[in-house]
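Entry type: protein chain
Record version: 2
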Amino acid sequence: MLEDGSTLFDSRVIAEYLDHLAGGGLIPPGEGRFAQLRLQALADGICDAALLQVYEGRFRTPEMRNAAWVENQAGKVTRALAALEAAPPAWSGKPRIGEIALACALGYLDLRFDGTWRATHPKLVAWLDDFAAKVPSFESTRVKG
């Protein structure tokens, strides 16, 4: 809620607002902007598809669950991880919106899917380990075991 009583909602809008308040850097200007927003969108897609799989099992009765639909959502995650494994994002060590979103998506997969993605994505595991080492605030909030 802002001082004037209006509200901001949706992670992307809130991130833009916080970036504005901080003077920029989270979402870079120019060409780098679109690379970060693309990575953010891909990571958000991973989270959306993963969350829908969790919801299907958690909130639908067994007879209402749709295995083909769950498999479709899992396929989205698999394809996104494959694309990222083929070309992990390079970064300077200063986290930006795309890297933060990706770290959160991978952390969510660790939390809800027991980190099964790790066995087949060694480059992403190394990327996340590097991110966690360089961003102590991320590592301190990560759910362990």
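Comment: The chain has a mean pLDDT of 93.
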